[in-house]
Amino acid sequence: MNEAFFDKKEYLPLDRVDGRLKVTGAAKYSAEYVLPDMTYGVLVGSRIAKGTIKSIDSKAAERAPGVLAVISHTNRIKVPGYEPSADASTGAPSANQSLRVFYDNKVYSNDQPVVIVVATSLEKAHYGASLVEIQYDQEKHKTDFEANTDGAVLPVAAKKNPKSPTADYDRGQTDAFQSAPYKIEAEYVLPTEMHNPMELQAITAHWEADDRLTIYDKVQGTKSTQKTFAKEWNIPEQNVKVIATFVGGAFGNGLHSWPHESAAIIAAKQVKRPVKLMLTREQMFTMVGYRPRTWQKVQMGATKDGKLVAINHHSIGQTSSYEEFTESTLQQTRMMYASPNVSTRYRLLPLNVATPIWMRGPGEATGAFALESAMDEMAHAIEMDPIDFRLMNYTETDPDKNIPWSTKFLRECYEEGKERIGWKNRKLKPGSVRDGEWLVGYGMGTGTFGANRSSATVHAELDINGNLVMHCAITDIGPGTATAMVQVASNTTGIAPEKITFHLGSSEFPNAGLQGGSSTVNSVGPAVQAACNALKEQLITLSASKNGSDFSAAKPDDVMFEKGEIRLSGKSSGTLSDFFKQNKIQKIETTQESKPSENGKKYSMNAFSMHFAMVHVHPYTGQVRVKKIVCCADAGTIVSPKTAESQMIGGATGGIGMALTEDAVMDHRFGRYVTKDFGDYHVPVHADVPDIEVYFVNKPDLLADPVGSKGLGEIAIIGVAPAIANAVFNATGKRVRTLPITPDKLI
Ligand code: MOS
């Protein structure tokens, strides 16, 4: 073990603690649990996008071999949480009513699950599902965003509260744009994008008693899911056990509970056996959320020497007809640059589609495409280097909230990234650099996301053999949470990582919020730290009472454990095993909660990123090849350098998808996606992804939280798509404002 590991200030790269379990197949995912009497559920989706179900003929399915039940709104058992209807007068759900599966005969979107067939094998369930005949009364649906933008509305939350984040926002003069010396005005469109994690959404539902439910579920929050289903079944929370030990990627689609989960739970109760249900890849496009299609318009005004005068930013994002999904598309426009005059308008367009949900960099990734493209357009209009233009409008305090940043090291990101990408080779005039027959371009995009911290509780125990074992309900969707928490614990205690275990992903463990919004390390990390310090305090108290003196004035920070030794202010003070023997105990344990401080009111806490792209564009075929990406992040302390770097590379890869390949295409005659597998919906593959370099400023933000972390997951993707779009413009002089930038848009 490297001695530097015990230097409290340094976090060194560590292999994933669960890597071996994952690559050997030993890690168990939601659909891999085997229970006695297991049955299998298959969902049947509606073939219309709007209307009512006239009849369901399930006779053939019920007679098919192995079929145990065919369940729909016509015969489902009572679900206590379904009653009463959100809107008793019409029976229709009101805004923010999640879809209640099998609630009634109404259809709100194509492929809405309307029937579940349960059988003794997956094959038999599939066959049974193929035999179900459904008749509909079809109504005229609206799925075409562009054809229906007139229907965009202010979100209900904003109507109720003018201070809501989605309410209309004006800072300074609202007419400043009109009189600005230089003006640009442009519209940007981001298509619907799908999360497409590797693991399909899956649940195994098991009623262990009439009022006790266990689910093995692919979710990003075990406690939030526990609450949802305890409420849906009107049973105590502790009667619902949610297990999500391993999650094979999610990107946001596990942040909400979905109809397939309720369907499996209803079915399990109805057939009185465990039900396993895994969505098909096609159903992943229709049943578990997506990044909503969004139109944006930016009006930007500046002076010739590069001072921003005004930014007006309007956005319309789609949502379902029954539930308002809002996201923070416009928030960064209010705080990223020092424009005295800023107006934002946020609207929702309800369509006959399923509800969208947060998708990596939710809101900000969408908003940054427009804002950072517009910044590039303006820099071009005033013939200024895009970095100089940003530095000219750099903000030293939050111009929206009018309070200081807790920390902001974005300048360092600009400087470092500029060097690494070779920005000096960029020419101001587009289309002026070539490499052989390829046009060469450089672009950049900035990202930011709030350092959102929530409460978290960790149980920790240290035993006579020097093993530290911790438990917490937090999930890990892939970034390496257990690895990061082992590093925080090792850093706090000096105990070698291989002697530390962090158990997560169960609602039975102490409370934690969602793994979402880049909030895990800065929420759970401090609880790990607090638990480790509490263990040290116990040791100090016990040692002081036994052999007095040295320990009586000691603080947790003075004590470290090293190779089984207790070190007090750096000096050996006996072994851990002797300590336990002296006190006649086998272990010490503690449960500690860590909560956000009041600093959030005094400081604006945000992580920042800066992405640079170098692209080649073929002048005849329009093919774009991303040759290099440099991602620079000010995310506070990086507690797990190796997994953090991987996380940044993953985010940049998602950004390449946003910029160049991803587009969920719908056939509006049917309101149905035509892209519904990896053959048609293109996520970047290995050949699309170049060398991605990652740089972390790695300066702690101790105002944000005691670990000093500001979060990483979102800023990894926010700003990447505009960096690529801006590089394409620099290469070709063609500005593509509707993503993805496919070759047809360049030739
Ligand atoms: Mo995310 S959209 O914070 O999983």
Description:
With 747 residues, this protein is of the alpha+beta class. The chain folds into three domains: 8-26 and 455-595, Aldehyde Oxidoreductase, domain 4 (2-Layer Sandwich); 33-140 and 196-284, Aldehyde Oxidoreductase, domain 3, CATH 3.90.1170; 151-192 and 290-452 and 602-745, 2-Layer Sandwich (Aldehyde Oxidoreductase, domain 4). The chain has 16 helices and 31 strands. A seven-stranded mixed β-sheet has the order 3-5-1-12-9-10-11, with helices on both faces. A hairpin with a 4-residue loop joins strand 16 and strand 17 (403-404). Helix 8 packs parallel to helix 16 and helix 15 (641-661) crosses helix 16. The longest helix is centred in the last third of the chain and has 28 residues, at 520-547. It is globular, with a radius of gyration of 27 Å. Residues 1-7 have low confidence and may be disordered. Dioxothiomolybdenum(VI) ion binds next to loops.
Put the structure in a nutshell.
This protein is of the alpha+beta class and 747 residues long. It contains 16 helices and 31 strands. The longest helix has 28 residues, at 520-547.
